[in-house]
Structures are given as C-alpha cells and as structure tokens.
Design goal:
Strand order of the largest sheet: 1-2
Number of domains: 1
Radius of gyration: 24 Å
InterPro entries: AbgT
Shape: globular
Keywords: Membrane, Transmembrane, Transmembrane helix
Protein name: Aminobenzoyl-glutamate transport protein
GO molecular function: secondary active p-aminobenzoyl-glutamate transmembrane transporter activity
Oligomer: single chain
Number of helices: 22
Organism: Aliidiomarina maris
Structural class: mainly alpha
C-alpha cells in the first residue's frame, strides 16, 4: 500500500470522527448567546440554592457561604442600575481594545507583514522549518495575520524550495494555532487572558492583582519547545508521509512569493529602528533609581510601579509609532486620516468581541453576586482535597480538559470566560495560584486548535492545501496535524510541570502558590 493510500485509509476513520464532532459542535450556541443563556441559568439557580444553608466558609468574610437570590426585586433593580458600569468596568475590555489600536496600525500599515516576508525570504533551506514556525509564533502579535499570511506563505516557500507545500502549510499551522500561547513578543492575548483571570480570582480574593505579563517568561520559553516539536515532526514524520502525495494543483493558480519592494524595505527599516529607539528610550527612562516609572520603593517590577501599570499602553505605543513611520514611508498612509481609518478598521474587527464581552461581563458579575461561584469552588476544592490528588495531577487534568472543550468552543477568550470563574477560585483554595492555572489553560487551549474543524480558520487552511493537492479534505488536514497535537499535548504539559518543579518564574510578578 502506498503512503498516499495509507493516508486516505486513515482519513476515512478520521472523517467519521470529525463529522460527529462537527455535528455536536454546531449544535452549541454562539458564545455570546451562550453567556446570555448562562446569565439566565445563574438567576434561576440563585433562586433555588438560596433556599438552603451551607457549611462551607467564605474566605472573604470568614462566615458560612450564603447564596443570594438574584431574582429578588432589590437584586434585579441593582442589576439594571449597574448594567452600564458592569460592562464598562469589565477588566479585559479596555486592555484588549487599547492594545489592538496600536497593533492594528502596525498591521494595516504593512509593518508586520513586510517583516514576516523578509524573515522568510532570506532563510537557508535547512533552517526553513524552524524559522517558519518561529515566524508563525511571532505572528500572534498581529492576531489573525498568521492565518491569512504565514500559513499560505509556508506552502509557497516550501514549494519554491522543492519541498512538499503541504508540509510547509502544516508547519506554519502548527506554529500559528498549535503554538498559539507561545510567543517571545507580548500580544493582545496576554492582557485579555490576564483580565479574565483577575476577574475570576477576585471571586475568591477581592484584593488580588495580576500582571498582564504574568505568563510571559513561560510562553517565551515555550516558543523553543513548540519550535523543536514542530521541526522534528515536520521533517521526520509529515514530509516522509507526503512523498506519495502528488501535487496536482493548477500551476497558474498556485500563489507565488511576492517580492518585497525597495520602498517597503526602506519603510520597514525605518519602522524597526523606530521601535528599537522606543525600547531604548523606555530603558533609559526606567534606569535611574529615582525614575517616575518605578514604585515609591524604587522597584521596577512591583505592582504599584507605573511601568507595570503601563504594560498595555506601552504595547500600544511600541507598535503604533513604528506602524505610522512605516506607513508614511511605504505609502500606505498618506495623511493622518489614514491612521485613524486603520484604527477604526481594527475596531470593526473587535465588534463581535464587544458583544460577547457585554454578555460575559453581566454573567460574571451575576455569578459573583450570587456566590454560586465561591460555593462551587469551595465544594470542588474540598472534594479534591479529600482525594489527596497531587497539584501536578490537577494541573494535567486542567490542560487536557481544556483541550477537550476546545474541540467544541474555538474562541480562546470565550472558553476562559466560561470556565475560569470556576477553576481559578477552586485552585486558589487548593493553594495553586491564578498565574499557574492560566498557564495550564494556555497550554490546553493551544494543543487541540489544529485538529478541530470548529476553528474558524480551519476551512481556510483546507483551501490553502487544495491549491496544491486538489482532493485535500478535512480528514487529510487532521491526519497531518494530529501528530503535532499529540506531541504538543504531552511534551508541553511535561515542560510546564518541569518548569514548575524548577521554580522558574512564570512571568512578571507571578507566583505558583496562593497566597504567594
């Protein structure tokens, strides 16, 4: 049996499994509708459970937990009166929008896209795979740029280098989506998840404060792990399997590598130097012991240091200014209005997030006000304590539970908004910090992205493959990506456990235990 026939025989089983998953997943409501429904469920449950007494102690009051009936007239009146404030004060909302305003300018000016092309166009053949995965990982900074730029470029570059284009697409897909939570460069996903984690942690400890870069050290080193796994699997497993797969696409329809113009190179150089100058100015500003960016005690990484409170604005500026410089020199920006339009277009892409955030903010507020969250957390923590399960086993369980949920709910923020109000307080009760719980979530959220057809970009990746191999289907793509998913799930989880065992900081102002 040829390699191609072997792949096809496996695809039959995979297609049946994936079709079943797709049917089940398609029955789930839209995340925004899901949170609206959960809000109604919380109201009803608060009415029911408010009728009972509980022995569990609320750590915030040191008294027995009391479930509040949210359908009582006073509670409903307060809900309506505070609805606007609940939405506008939702922690992830402002940080995500501010970060995206800067990143959006850098992306729409061409600064990020030209940088990616220059990296991939000037690479030795034997380093093609690891650099492609590295660029795919860094592309998370521009949110969806990896899906629409790096993945198709992976096929183009491998094809131009005489390698199988589907292997290039698979490697890029593994970096963009399978390594979604690995990145050397802070991006909008960091403050987004941190904001959700902090809001959930405050259900247990109202005074807790988390840093937006609380997982940055871990995600940076995770990039090396993802690159190593992706490099080995691409070169040693995927390409050998594709030797019998004929490239039968129409040559005239196969995309080609676009040359980066001299003007774009000049613009990118200017933008890059601007970014480096900005970083240098920041270092110079924070270096003196009496710097206004330090805490009153002279510390840089303290929670009350203005520098730490300015992480999101700094992300905005370090992409916004270089993006403007690049745009004017490249000609993509001709007047100030073009910059504003770029920011406006970026906000248009955030419209769905705003709708989802509205319902989610109301749900989390109601969940906290009802005390159902703290009740579930305390009961769950007591149950886990009775099992005497080691913390490492609990973390592994979180990773694989999230990976399973990810097959049905594709949005990273939607999943975390859904499950963090339960898991974060529960694990805090067991002495596990929100920083560690979030890191475990990020691993689980990444590893199964590449094998679920419910990922919004999954059909697009199939189309990229069909440019080279016409009969590529969902099963074909999943059979290519499954080795990455399994390897990432096992090795990345072990890496997290080893990282924890060695006591390496997860990020800025992070901890492993609670209280820290």
């Amino acid at each position: 049996m040829s390699d191609q026939q072997s792949v096809k025989s496996k695809d039959g089983l995979l297609d049946r499994i994936l079709n079943r998953i797709e049917i089940i997943g398609n029955k789930l409501p839209d995340p925004a509708v899901m949170f609206a429904g959960l809000l109604l469920i919380v109201w009803v449950l608060s009415l029911i459970f408010a009728q009972f007494s509980y022995s569990e102690i609320d750590p915030r009051t040191s008294e027995a937990i009391v479930v509040n009936n949210l359908l009582a007239p006073d509670a409903l009146a307060n809900f309506l009166a505070g609805m606007v404030t609940t939405f506008t004060s939702f922690a992830p909302l402002g940080v995500v929008l501010v970060a995206m305003l800067g990143i959006g300018v850098a992306e729409r000016s061409g600064f990020i896209n030209v940088g990616i092309k220059l990296l991939l166009n000037n690479t030795a053949k034997f380093l093609l795979t690891p650099l492609l995965i590295l660029v795919a990982i860094v592309s998370h900074t521009a949110v969806d740029a990896g899906y629409v730029l790096v993945i198709p470029l992976g096929g183009i570059i491998f094809y131009a280098a005489g390698r199988h284009p589907l292997a290039g697409i698979a490697a890029a897909f593994a970096g963009v989506s399978g390594g979604f939570s690995a990145n050397f460069v802070p991006s909008a996903i960091d403050p987004m998840l941190q904001g959700i984690t902090e809001a959930s942690a405050r259900l247990y400890d109202a005074s807790i404060v988390l840093n937006p870069l609380n997982n940055w050290f871990f995600t940076s080193l995770s990039s090396i792990v993802v690159i190593g796994i992706g490099w080995y699997i691409t070169d040693k497993i995927i390409e050998p399997r594709l030797k019998g797969t004929e490239i039968d696409g129409d040559p005239s329809e196969m995309p080609q590598i676009e040359e980066v113009s001299s003007q774009d190179r000049k613009a990118f150089t200017a933008g890059g130097l601007t970014m480096l100058a900005g970083i240098a100015l920041l270092v110079a500003a924070v270096w003196p012991e009496g710097s206004a960016l330090r805490s009153p005690q002279g510390e840089i990484a303290a929670f009350d240091a203005p520098l730490m409170q300015s992480i999101v604005p700094l992300i905005f500026l370090l992409f916004w200014v270089p993006g403007i410089v690049h745009g004017y020199i490249a000609g993509t920006f001709k007047e100030s209005r073009d910059i504003i339009m770029a920011m406006s277009k970026t906000m248009e892409t955030m419209a769905y997030y705003l709708v989802m955030a509205f319902f989610c903010a109301l749900f989390i507020q109601a969940f906290g006000d009802s005390n159902l969250g703290i009740l579930i957390a305390m009961k769950g923590a007591n149950f886990l304590q009775s099992l005497a399960v080691p913390g490492s086993v609990t973390i592994v369980g979180i990773v694989f539970l999230v990976a399973l949920i990810n097959l049905f709910v594709g949005s990273a923020s939607a999943k975390w908004l859904l499950i963090s109000p339960i898991f974060v307080p529960m694990l805090m009760q067991l002495g596990i910090s929100p920083d560690l719980t979030q890191a475990a979530y990020r691993v689980g959220d990444s590893v199964s992205n590449i094998i679920t057809p419910l990922l919004p970009y999954f059909p697009l990746v199939v189309v990229y493959c069909q440019r080279y191999v016409k009969n590529t289907g969902i099963g074909t793509l999943v059979s290519l990506m499954l080795p990455y998913s399994v390897a990432l799930g096992i090795i990345w989880t072990l890496f997290l456990l080893a990282y924890w065992a060695l006591g390496i900081p997860l990020g800025v102002q992070s901890s492993y235990g609670y209280p820290a």
